[in-house]
Design a protein that fits this description.
Helix content is 36%, strand content 17%. The chain is α+β, with helices and mostly antiparallel strands. The chain has 42 helices and 44 strands. Strands 1-2-11-4-7-8-9 form a 7-stranded antiparallel β-sheet, with no helix packed on it. It has a 7-stranded mixed β-sheet with strand order 15-14-19-13-20-21-22, with helices on both faces. Helix 6 crosses helix 7 (346-375), helix 25 (972-982) packs across helix 28 and helix 25 runs antiparallel to helix 30.
């Protein structure tokens, strides 16, 4: 926002009209306006400047009049808003008490609500509704009167709205703003997260920071301990740190309860008195200044003549007023007068006269004191003399005590700027790392604690577990975890280079480094230097607060000075966090207090309805506000609640439950991660405990032992929540085996046992599809556990049951012919090995498997893994970086082992998978690598053909030796290929290509005369060989034969770009790939080209760019709705992009789901009519197959409303050629139907029926038989069709087509019956689908 160019005469605008400053020699003429009208719920921030020369403060108001009209009017802008503008229509204004804005850099925030209220916030404190009843349907401008001691105002950004509210979107923001209109409080709190290795001293550090005594027998922390919190006051030293006790929380609650809606700011009577006092003081000061400059004048307070105001105000009663004049004090010039103010209310004039007399008396007394001091030896003027001397007016605020003001400010600071830190003490055992990642947040300050006595240079042995990793590796692990899960740049400033949250490195056991202090200091400095060197170039370096702090938790004498330094640094960093001081609605804080009280009473769990009732007690009634409230506190970690759009569980509705106590949830997770059998082992459960410990499979019969005090409904919720967090997944039993295993069980990846013999899991062969997922130096074990859980669930949903599951290695079922192996490589490599194996003939453990996997299955696996990682990044790990890659086989010499093509995992180097699948050649560190061996694992994209004719027909002889100049319209890909060909080596240049293509020497000489012989050769070849796509295909063959793969890449890319964009975009989730593929087949048979990622991309192209290209180029989006589709982030993005592009959307329900589906899609889909593919067939129906055909026909009909077929339709019953008019109607339809019966279900490729034309007429013969025969040879499916024609023409069905008469079995039976339904020509013609007319060529003769 900026200030309007229309403003008072004493105002100067600067800084791009965002700063308005009033002249220092006056207290009025300071009216300013906003440049633009205000918006509803717009928050405007203003920073005010203050002086001490006058009295009074800023007036804030609203006007419905355009500021331009005010300055162009006859009266112009008045000197003050009060009382002139306050009495005019279209102005609403209030005076701000000076005591509220007396600080030098006071900050105001104004919020115009939809209820017509102007809410006022001063320095983060809500002061109530400044104005009420504003006409929000009219355009309203902000009006400020920089009056008295307020001499400037600057627009500033308002950052006090929580980022979690902004991230929820406009509905949550509107609910927040509405709640703020009833009062807010600034909240200053954060978390202090203590993480580190086991026995590093985290708990002892927490006790030392909070002033507790050291306990040398401190036990180990289990899970996370959040039972402690501390507080400190800003502006004080570190001694103010103290534990937060319940009595202080009770006092805070009482203050919160006492805070009520202030309504209209303050009392009207007190404000009027204060305003009158300020006006009178300023008038007296102005008169006094003039008298000091001209002692020959005297003040004259006289009544205002009644005739002076002849406007509307003269009607009715008129309050008495006075004019203030300055006249000559002697009779020499009685006519000389100076006007100070006119039409001043008599009460204010009398008050101004009293103040003037009092100040004149003070001046006389001060002058007498100066004379006495001078006569006594020329002493200096007393310090009590006004600092402004003879030029500035003394302050008059009834001798207000400056000391009292300071005390008031100090009390306000102590009461309002206390920061509370909730301390989270993380256990150091490796078993808890997976659950720890769930609770990492950006609203925290992290202290990574380590033992200074440990060797920082110690490396991690991959054979050891995480608890034995080196100190530097451990620090790297935690800093990468914090960076990946919680990193944010909360300050929107280009100069800001610091990431949130901040991380402190704290070394403990300092005094154990050596015996003397000098050696200790030297060792500490060495470790600091080593850590700072280690941080160089790391992505998390901007989080770290340097230098490292070395402390001693149990010093022998007093408290360690370094602890005091650490407290000061923590206090300083905490006070600078952007979320400190956020405005939270008062009623939300009261709700928070109720939630905390319930948790303190041991109530850990509540239903959504119960929480809604608690919210209603605080006037939080609307569902939108309750949802925003719960999501906000969920993001803050103060409760746990998952909304319906993020709930992936189907057994339990997580949105109906709320966890009030996160500590209870942590304890429940901890018990699962560390559960062990009781000492008294029951024989009936011994095998269940063994199964959990060795295999990581938990039976529900163990739950009463693991969660002994938890009700059954709570257990169901906890299991569903852990499944939501991918900490476990349900175990599905084989079909028909439920009677043998009556209970339920779950896979828990964090508890899988180690693999003893990898050869019993799988045997890798050269025929297996192998690729890797590289995680850019950060692959926490918890992430692989989550990926394991999702993979196991995905496999079971596709029919997998007996899975091979181990710690860091799983082999699962993909389909009846394929298995998938996921293996976590050595921890320091940070990558996952993916192996897809064909196991139809031999087991996965057999090294004699010699059949490659199906490319569609490999693409299916890759797509699942990419979707899963994308969802994990969106939900949990914000900065997760990964890429799919192939191991390079370039035979590069290994420097470590001096072996070419070394297969050791540490020596492998990789090629980007997407780049390999989209290019003929890629470059690695060693040489150029051909990609055919990689592409075989993934489906080939649909054939892409250039438009014919490929180029404009030309003759080389007409180019006059410069084809590039005389034929400028040649395609760019042709010129690019010619450029590379000109610079090729001797055996790969244009001459070699011409010879291998059969050019005679005289023709080569002709081409050589051109300035660009390569371009002449390529052009001549394409034109002379038919100017068809076949010409380009043969050219590609010769280029590949010569090894010119880079030139072939250019042509292939041109073919891809030249392909017309598909008409229909199929948006789906991979769980229904087969059904969507069947739908695509029917649409393509109907002539509508389809975009489907498995067909168009083969899992290899850049996903995001291709999706964007497909969506932008399509005419219609078919959304294949399933429960997983609605929960998929990628599918949600596709649908939102389609809606933003205004693409028509056709919802097709593939699996049972409520309508509209829950989540963000409901906004788009709720108003659309969907087609339900479920519930077809059944008793009394026409059969599942027939009903399914009806659904497909309905989809085709709906698609045809938005686009026209762009492909040649297949010969199918749905698209019969219209019967020729001269023939008998009783014969031709039967022939047509008989033909459709014979061809029903036959799917040809699109190119094989390219002779069928929508615009063709029956009886018309094709003129280009040679071209048709060429295409016939290229498409094997046409041979199948011709063989079927031979069967028909040989009379196999008892009918002679030569005579056109019905056969003995069809005679007079009328229309044929297909799949139990009558297929008359009238039924077919009424389907609303364009009919295909067929030309009389070879295909026409068959028809």
């Amino acid at each position: 926002m900026r200030f309007h160019l229309s403003h008072g005469s004493a105002i100067t605008l600067s800084t791009g009209q965002t700063c308005a400053m009033r002249s220092a020699d006056t207290y009025h003429h300071g009216l300013v306006f906003s440049e633009q009208p205000l918006c509803i719920n717009q928050r405007l921030g203003l920073q005010l400047g203050a002086t001490t020369s006058w009295a009074g403060a800023v007036r804030v108001g609203i006007t419905s009049l355009d500021p331009v009209t005010l300055t162009t009017s006859e009266d112009g802008l008045p000197s003050e808003a009060h009382p002139t503008l306050m009495k005019r229509e279209g102005f609403w204004m209030r005076v701000i008490p000076e005591r509220l804005v007396a600080s030098p850099r006071c900050r105001l925030v104004l919020n115009l609500t939809s209820l017509g209220q102007l809410q006022l916030f001063i320095d983060g404190h809500h002061k109530g509704s400044l104005l009420l009843g504003l006409p929000v349907r009219r355009r309203l401008w902000l009006l400020l009167d920089l009056y008295g001691n307020t001499d400037s105002a600057t627009f500033v950004t308002t950052e006090d709205v929580p980022q979690e509210i902004i991230a929820q979107g406009n509905p949550a923001l509107e609910a927040y703003e509405l709640a703020c209109s009833q009062g807010t409080q600034p909240v200053r709190r954060s978390r202090l997260m203590l993480v580190g290795q086991e026995n590093a001293g985290k708990t002892s550090l927490m006790r030392a920071l909070t002033g507790q005594w050291h306990n040398s027998k401190e036990g180990k922390t289990a899970g996370i301990d959040v039972s402690f919190s501390c507080s400190f006051s800003l502006g004080r030293n570190q001694a103010s740190w103290k534990l937060t006790v319940k009595g202080e929380e009770t006092a805070r609650r009482e203050r919160l309860e006492a805070s009520v809606d202030l309504g209209v700011l303050g009392g009207a009577e007190s404000l009027v008195e204060e305003q009158d006092q300020a006006v009178a003081t300023n008038l007296a000061l102005e008169v006094l200044l003039k008298l000091r400059h001209d002692p020959g004048l005297k003040p004259d307070f006289r009544d205002t003549p009644l005739v002076k105001d002849a406007g509307p105000r003269s009607s009715g009663s008129h309050s008495p007023s006075k004019d203030i004049l300055l006249v000559a004090s002697d009779d020499s010039s009685p006519s000389f007068t100076t006007t100070v103010a006119t039409d001043i209310p008599a009460s204010i004039a009398r008050l101004a006269e009293e103040i003037l007399h009092r100040k004149q008396e003070e001046d006389r007394q001060r002058a007498c004191q100066v004379d006495r001091n001078t006569s006594q030896g020329g002493q200096k003027i007393s310090d009590s003399t006004d600092k402004t001397g003879q030029t500035d007016a003394p302050r008059d605020k009834e001798k207000r005590s400056e000391k009292g003001m300071d005390m008031e400010k100090d009390c306000h600071k102590e009461d309002g700027e206390t920061i509370v830190l909730s301390i989270w003490d993380f256990a150091g055992q490796a078993a808890y790392y997976t659950t720890h990642q769930v609770f990492l947040t950006s609203r925290a300050i992290y202290c990574i604690v380590f033992n200074l006595c440990d060797n920082l240079s110690k490396q991690w042995d991959d054979s050891q577990d995480k608890s034995q990793m080196g100190t530097l590796q451990y620090l790297d692990f935690w800093m990468r975890s914090i960076h990946a899960h919680a990193a944010e740049n909360r300050r929107n400033d280009a100069a800001n280079t610091v990431l949130s949250p901040p991380i402190f490195l704290v070394g403990t056991h300092r005094d154990e480094l050596a015996t003397d202090s000098e050696s200790i200091s030297k060792l500490v400095e060495e470790k600091r230097a080593l850590l700072e060197e280690f941080l160089v170039g790391k992505p998390y370096a901007q989080h770290v607060v340097l230098p490292m702090v070395a402390v001693e938790n149990d010093p022998l004498t007093g408290e360690d000075p370094e602890l005091s330094h650490l407290r000061e640094e923590l206090q300083n960093v905490a006070s600078k966090q952007s979320y400190i001081g956020e405005q939270i609605p008062t009623k939300w804080l009261r709700f928070e207090q109720d939630i905390t009280s319930q948790a303190d009473m041991g109530i850990n769990f509540a239903t959504y309805n119960q929480v809604s009732e608690m919210a209603a007690n605080h006037n939080i009634c609307k569902r939108e506000e309750v949802s925003a409230l719960l999501q906000f506190y969920h993001d803050l970690g103060m409760l746990v609640h998952y909304s319906s759009d993020t709930d992936r569980s189907t057994a339990v509705d997580l949105s109906s439950m709320v966890v009030l106590n996160p500590q209870w949830l942590i304890d429940m997770f901890t018990q699962i991660a560390a559960a062990s059998p009781p000492k008294e082992k029951w024989g009936v459960l011994a095998d269940k405990w063994t199964q959990l410990i060795n295999q990581g499979v938990m039976d529900d019969s163990l739950l009463p032992s693991i969660w002994p005090d938890t009700p059954d409904d709570h257990r169901s919720f906890l299991l569903a929540l852990m499944a939501q967090l991918d900490l476990l997944c349900p175990r599905l039993l084989p079909a028909g085996q439920s009677h043998r295993y009556p209970g339920h069980s779950w896979y828990i990846p964090m508890r899988f046992g180690p693999v003893k013999d990898k050869r019993k899991v799988y045997a890798q062969t050269s025929h297996d599809a192998l690729f890797y997922i590289d995680f850019n130096n950060f692959l926490p074990e918890g992430l692989f556990h989550r990926l394991q859980a999702r993979t196991i669930l995905w496999s079971q949903e596709h029919g997998g049951r007996d899975l091979c599951l181990h710690q860091g290695l799983v082999r699962v079922f993909v389909d009846s012919d394929h298995d998938l192996t996921l293996e976590m490589c050595a921890p320091h490599l940070h990558r996952v090995k993916v192996l897809v194996m064909h196991v139809k003939d031999k087991e996965a453990t057999s090294s004699k498997r010699n059949s490659p996997p199906n490319p569609e299955s490999v693409a299916k696996v890759r797509n699942f893994l990419e979707n899963s990682l994308c969802e994990l990044r969106g939900q949990w790990i914000k900065r997760l970086a990964y890429k799919f890659c192939f191991p390079c086989f370039c035979k590069k010499l290994c420097e470590q082992h001096q072996v070419e093509g070394c297969t050791d995992h540490d020596c492998l180097h990789f090629l980007d998978l997407d780049e390999c699948l989209t290019s003929q050649i890629v470059c690695c560190e060693h040489r150029r690598v051909k990609t055919e061996s990689f592409k075989k694992w993934f489906p080939s994209p649909h054939s892409k053909e250039l438009k014919e004719p490929v180029i404009s027909p030309v003759l080389i002889e007409q180019s006059f030796g410069n084809i590039e100049r005389h034929m400028p319209n040649l395609p760019s890909w042709l010129k690019g290929a010619a450029k590379l060909l000109n610079g090729a080596s001797e055996n790969q240049d244009w001459l070699a290509l011409a010879k291998i293509m059969g050019y005679k020497q005289n023709r080569i000489d002709t081409l050589n005369e051109d300035l660009n012989p390569s371009l002449a050769l390529l052009t001549d070849w394409i034109v002379s060989s038919g100017n068809t796509t076949m010409s380009v295909d043969v050219l590609l063959h010769y280029l590949k034969y010569l090894g010119c793969d880079d030139i072939a890449d250019i042509i292939l890319q041109a073919k891809e770009h030249d392909l017309e964009r598909p008409q229909v975009f199929l948006s789906y989730q991979w769980d229904v790939q087969d059904q969507v593929a069947a739908l695509r087949d029917h649409l393509e048979k109907a002539g509508f080209s389809c975009w489907m990622d498995i067909g168009q991309m083969g899992g290899g192209d850049q996903l995001s760019s291709k999706i964007d290209q497909g969506l932008r180029g399509c005419k219609l989006v078919v959304a294949c709705i399933t429960p997983k589709y609605t929960a998929s982030h990628l599918c949600n993005r596709e649908l939102w992009l389609a809606d933003m592009l205004h693409k028509p959307i056709l919802p097709v329900v593939m699996e049972t789901v409520g309508w509209p589906p829950p989540g963000g899609m409901a906004v788009i889909l709720s108003q659309l009519v969907h087609i339900d593919m479920k519930g077809i067939g059944g008793h009394g129906g026409t059969g599942i197959h027939a009903d399914l055909q009806d659904k497909y026909a309905e989809i085709v009909q709906r698609v045809s409303l938005h686009t026209q077929p762009d492909l040649v339709p297949c010969v199918d019953a749905t698209f019969l050629p219209p019967p020729p008019a001269p023939l008998s109607s009783s014969h031709v339809p039967s022939d047509s139907h008989r033909f459709s019966d014979r061809f029903s279900g036959y799917r040809t490729s699109m190119s094989s029926l390219s002779e069928v034309d929508f615009e063709g007429r029956p009886g018309q013969h094709h003129a280009q038989r040679s071209q048709f025969q060429t295409r016939q040879q290229r498409d094997a499916s046409l041979d199948v069709m011709l063989s079927r024609y031979e069967d028909i023409s040989s009379g196999g069905d008892g009918e002679s087509r030569a005579g056109g008469r019905p056969g003995p079995h069809r005679g007079a039976q009328g229309p044929s019956v297909r799949h139990g339904r009558s297929m008359s020509s009238s039924n077919i013609s009424n389907r609303g689908v364009p009919q295909a007319n067929v030309k009389q060529c070879a295909i026409c003769h068959i028809l």
